[in-house]
Q: What sequence folds into this?
């Protein structure tokens, strides 16, 4: 028995059990609510034969993390992807001429969004309300509202787009005018950081904001990059000031409030981390601390890892279970701070 009810080329209803679903090539449109509330749908393959996606077509499909819309699609209905809570990225092709708002409401984990410039003015109604930045990949920044421009700047940098054409110049103008405000964001997204250096968009008046943002991140590579940039870009009058900042930053990065006698204890040790940190601003800061002490922070657990830093060492999370199976010692953030003599 087929998992699809298809009438005159329209996929009216999906009746399968979920999993990885491939829509038949005979389908030309996905009807309203065709996959509504299909929580067990893990991935969906939409064929090039489809030209439209109906109202609430994939609403409340809470498992997929990404959905690829083919170039054949021209319209997306109202709330077509609403409630796709695990959806992190979506790309709307240039072929789409109509998106009924709000197409992506309640997609609270959406992080990356691509669409034609023609929808720039509709972002407020198309995109979900999220607490985190949504990185946008849109050719033209001119019609993007102020709220979404920082995310568009990151997307422009990540796409490594041409800075000399009309659209590229508009992005460069925006980034240049808002360099100080974008400092913290540039640290979090190195593509933007290095674009600003490469195109010489950081001026002497913005160096204070950048050096503070770099210091807060603890990323020694970015510290070196911004200071090299400063030395090559600023006037001789400002170089003494830059050197003074460098000495302060180098001292802070090396010591990081650690007890010098205890630092040697973790040299050559490999750490991993899981969960939210309480005494570090972010994982970049923790990584910088470890690197300054000759230790390593890794993303994946293996038998080469000595310690897993977790504030819930006794919980039955997958990471804790994996660490236990590999014989990795689990320590809390407080125990780590005690290990290195860090006072917080």
A:
């Amino acid at each position: 028995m087929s998992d699809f009810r298809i009438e005159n080329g329209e996929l009216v209803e999906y009746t399968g059990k979920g999993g990885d679903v491939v829509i038949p090539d005979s389908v030309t449109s996905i009807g309203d609510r065709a996959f509504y509330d299909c929580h067990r749908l893990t991935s969906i393959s939409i064929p090039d034969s489809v030209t439209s996606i109906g109202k609430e077509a994939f609403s409340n499909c809470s498992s997929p993390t990404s959905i690829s819309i083919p170039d054949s699609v021209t319209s997306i209905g109202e709330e077509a992807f609403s409630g796709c809570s695990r959806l992190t990225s979506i790309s709307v092709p240039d072929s789409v001429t109509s998106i009924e708002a709000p197409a992506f409401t309640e997609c609270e984990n959406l992080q990356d969004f691509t669409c034609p410039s023609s929808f720039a003015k509709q972002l407020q109604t198309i995109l979900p309300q999220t607490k985190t930045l949504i990185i946008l990949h849109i050719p033209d920044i001119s019609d993007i509202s102020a709220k979404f421009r920082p995310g568009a700047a990151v997307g422009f940098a990540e796409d490594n787009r041409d800075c000399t054409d009309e659209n590229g110049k508009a992005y460069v103008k925006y980034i240049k005018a808002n360099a100080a405000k974008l400092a913290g964001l540039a640290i979090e997204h190195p593509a933007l950081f290095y674009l600003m250096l490469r195109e010489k968009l950081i001026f002497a008046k913005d160096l204070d904001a950048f050096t503070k943002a770099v210091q807060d991140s603890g990323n020694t590579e970015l510290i070196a990059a911004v200071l090299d940039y400063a030395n090559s870009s600023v006037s001789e009058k400002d170089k003494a000031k830059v050197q003074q900042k460098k000495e302060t930053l180098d001292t802070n990065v090396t010591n990081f409030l650690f007890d010098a006698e205890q630092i040697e204890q973790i040299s050559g040790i490999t750490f991993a981390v899981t969960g939210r940190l309480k005494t570090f601003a972010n994982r970049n800061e923790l990584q910088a601390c470890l690197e300054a002490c000759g230790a390593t922070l890794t993303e994946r657990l293996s038998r080469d890892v000595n310690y897993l830093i977790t504030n819930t060492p006794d919980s039955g999370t997958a990471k804790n279970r994996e660490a236990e199976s590999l014989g990795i010692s689990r320590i809390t953030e407080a125990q780590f701070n005690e290990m290195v003599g860090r006072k917080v």
The first helix runs from residue 123 to 126.
